[in-house]
Structure formats: structure tokens, C-alpha cells
Amino acid sequence: MTRPGPTDPRDGPVPADDVLSIRGLSVGFAGFTVLDGIDLTVRAGELVCIVGESGSGKSLTALATMGLAPPGARIAADCLRFTGRDLLPLTERERQTLRGNEMAMIFQEPMTSLNPVMTVGEQIMEPLRQHRRMGARQARETALAMLSRVQVPAPEARFDQYPHQLSGGLRQRVMIAMALVCRPRLLIADEPTTALDVTIQAQILRLVDELRHEMGTSILFITHDLAVVSEIADRIAVIYAGRIVEEGTRDDIFDDPQHPYTLALFAALP
Ligand code: ADP
Ligand code: MG
């Protein structure tokens, strides 16, 4: 059940200022379908939350969008466009030049996506060197400035440390610095606060929200946590068993949830 009106992604042609337009995205593995016709739009400057239970297909939606779906995944879509460009025909090499540059992703557990044998500084400089062709000095200055911007205390000292020397909250800040250092148009955040304690969670949410306004980055924020959604979402897409069952503004969904699954999500709130 998708709410009718101007936010319905199936209403007409894809508007030019959409950062991400997904229509009819299906992903399956041999013998079974996981995503079954996902429609999703992220407009310039928006923070859109995908909310749904574990196993509903949130991460796969993110990974398919990033061109990072696992081997064996069969992907089909009517439309998968990023800033007006059709992603489906792109080669792996072309996708790579978008990733970390114009579109970036952060994950639930930064330990799995930070390189354990590279220092914090090297990892934040990497996208600058690769995508911006920056020299060592400029990359270092830019990376240090980003590290301070994500409020890592004593950035000069942290710069030369390895991920295992940082707390979970600091590692997530480093991931955010890496993801945003090239000022991407879109950040996909896949449960980035789920592994953190509540106070750190709130700090990271506040930081993400500040940075998106500062940098003009649109965000697709994935979570199973309605409390998080109520904090930050402009628009919400509720996913259930591989389908978006309801979509609307935060007020639409919180004040007048329609789909039985959305109602069940609210009923389960403490
Ligand atoms: P969520 O992030 O909402 O918890 P996922 O997108 O990770 O859910 O996964 C949705 C479903 O897709 C899983 O329950 C699983 O059945 C299936 N799936 C994900 N990755 C694979 C894979 N590599 N091979 C087979 N099935 C997979
Ligand atoms: Mg997931």
C-alpha cells in the first residue's frame, strides 16, 4: 500500500532533481526472490529512512544500489538512476569511480569495513587520492580537517592509530569521515548506530544530521529502530518481506500509519 500523491514514485517521469530513483528493483538468488519490486526515491537534500525488521531486505536494497550485491544475486529493475544517470548498464569500473566519491556507504559495524592494517589517516586519505588525485600534503590536511569535523578528539594523534585502537563510537566517526570526505551526493547508512550504546547513538545521529545540512548530501538511512526514524527522517519507506509496503513523510507515517505491518511496528514500541 503506497500512499498516493506527489511522493508516489510511480506517479510520473523521474524528476530531474532526484538523487536516487529506484523502480521495480527485484533481487533474487537461485530459486528464491528477496526483493520484490522495490520503489524508492531520494530527492536532493532529503533524509529518507527505510525501516523494517531483520531479514526484510534492507541491506540488499542498499548493496544493490551501490553495485555491491553478493555474488550470485540476480538483479532486475525498471529504473535505477543516480543523479540522472542510469546505473544498470555501468561496468564495474564505472561503478567503482562512483563509490566513495559521489555515492558512499557506511555499515553497522565499522570493524568489518575499516582496513585493520591501515591507519585512520591513510583510510580517510585513500578516497581523496583515488578520486580527487590529491597530493600527499593536501590529502593529509583535508583528511585531518574531516576528522576534526566528525568530532574525533585529538585528531592529529588519532590519525596515525589503527582501527582496533579506537572505541566503537570513534570507529563509526572515522567511517563517516571516510564516507563524506569526497562530499558525495548520496550517503547510504546501513544501521550505522545499531551496534552503539544509546548515548553514542544519539551523538552519531546528531552528527549525521548536521553534516548532511552542511554538505548538502542526501541520505538513505536504514534502520529497524522507529525511535531513530522519528529523530531524523524527512520521509519514511516501510519495508516488509522485500516490498515497500508504505511510504510517506514522517508525519504521514507517525500520525496515520496505514499498512498492518506499520501498525504492528508501532504496537511493538515500548
Ligand atoms: P536486512 O538487512 O533487512 O536484515 P538483508 O537484506 O540482509 O536483510 O537480507 C534479506 C534476505 O536476503 C535474507 O533473509 C536472506 O534470506 C537473503 N540474502 C541476503 N544475502 C544473501 C546471499 N548472499 N545469499 C542468499 N540469500 C541472501
Ligand atoms: Mg541489514
TrEMBL record:
Its main location: membrane. The keyword Transmembrane helix does not apply. GO terms for biological process: peptide transport; transmembrane transport. It is a peripheral membrane protein. One of its GO terms (cellular component) is plasma membrane. It comes from the Bacteria. Residues 14-266 form the ABC transporter domain. Keywords: ATP-binding, Cell membrane, Membrane, Nucleotide-binding, Transport. It is found in: Cell inner membrane. GO terms for molecular function: ATP binding; ATP hydrolysis activity. Belongs to the ABC transporter superfamily. This is ABC transporter ATP-binding protein. It comes from Palleronia sediminis. The chain holds residues 1 to 270 of 338 of the full protein.
